[in-house]
Specification:
Helix content: 40-55%
Shape: globular
Low-confidence stretches: 275-279
Number of strands: 11
Number of helices: 10
CATH class: Alpha Beta
Strand content: 5-15%
Structural class: alpha/beta
CATH topology: TIM Barrel
Order of helices and strands: EHHEHHEHEHEEEEEHEHHEH
Mean pLDDT: 95
Largest sheet: 5 strands, parallel
CATH superfamily: Glycoside hydrolase/deacetylase
Length: 279
């Protein structure tokens, strides 16, 4: 049976800071929390369990909704200490210390064992750092080309071992490697999803989509935001919530069974520690 891996980069909204615009950090956290709550309501109604890659500021600000998600058998994984961190610019020792502090804080706060990790903006430290963190798997690979960010066009599309850890790539289509998560799904819409989803399932056995909480919140106009920033906020709020609901309904009709990443890996026979009931 094919699986739906619905994953959330549960992070603070820092797009204004990324482009050097004035912003209120508390309001940016509130934006992410509101979007997360709207998304969780949808996932609850559609009976979809997700894997949430959390930063510490987001988890602190949205601890209540995050706890409610874990009670409903969602999974908590590690994203970063802060979304502004760039572990590729740190020494391995510094990256290990920073990510280790985040992992320990999240585990203590939510009484879970964290098995997985996705780097913020896919900027991951060396695999040996992640091994030293005690992780079992990562989802650091988006096997496509995003100009100015990364080029993973020739990388595997299916789960595989990499540096002693299981890598669970985000879904893209074969050959052309067309992406179908957050930015692309939202800007190209339902026809794009229909054109790519079934093809992305080929050779992987899953549809692995990722989104961000702030995409489910309406945003006011931000003067000075460049084109890519404006596209990053295009069709956010209720229109995207409606589109994701349509995606989830389509997935159910196609027989895709929702699963967290750790659950999926165990069911597929990967060597996964049992851990706690929530992951």
């Amino acid at each position: 049976m094919a699986r739906l891996l619905f994953t959330v980069d549960a992070e603070e909204f820092d797009l204004p800071a990324e482009y050097g615009l004035a912003h209120d950090s508390s309001e940016c956290l509130a934006i992410s929390r509101r979007g997360f709550e709207a998304l969780q309501d949808l996932l609850r109604r559609q009976r979809v369990q997700a894997t949430h890659f959390a930063t510490v500021p987001f988890a602190d600000h949205a601890s209540g909704p995050l706890r409610e998600a874990l009670v409903l058998d969602h999974e908590l994984a590690l994203h970063a200490f802060s979304h502004r961190d760039d572990c590729t610019k740190m020494t391995e020792a510094a990256a290990l210390e920073r990510l280790g502090a985040a992992k320990r804080k999240l585990e203590a706060e939510f009484s879970v064992t964290i098995r997985g990790y996705r780097a913020n903006r896919f900027r991951s430290p060396a695999r040996r750092v992640l091994k030293d963190l005690g992780l079992a798997w990562t989802s650091n690979l988006h096997p496509t080309w995003v100009p100015g960010s990364y080029n993973n066009f020739s990388k595997p599309r299916a789960p595989h071992l990499d540096g002693g850890l299981i890598e669970v790539p985000v879904s893209v289509t074969p050959i052309l490697r067309l992406p179908l998560s957050w930015f692309w799904l939202r800007n190209f819409g339902w026809p794009w999803f229909l054109a790519t989803a079934r093809r992305a399932l080929q050779g992987t056995g899953y549809l692995h989509i990722y989104v961000h909480p702030w995409e489910f919140t309406e945003h006011i106009a931000m003067p000075g935001l460049p084109l890519m920033g404006r596209l990053s906020l295009r069709r956010t709020g209720p229109p995207f919530l409606e589109l994701v609901e349509r995606v989830l309904r389509w997935s159910a009709a196609e027989g895709l069974k929702p699963a967290t990443i750790s659950q999926y890996l165990r069911e597929e026979g990967w060597n996964m520690p049992e851990g706690c009931a929530c992951c």
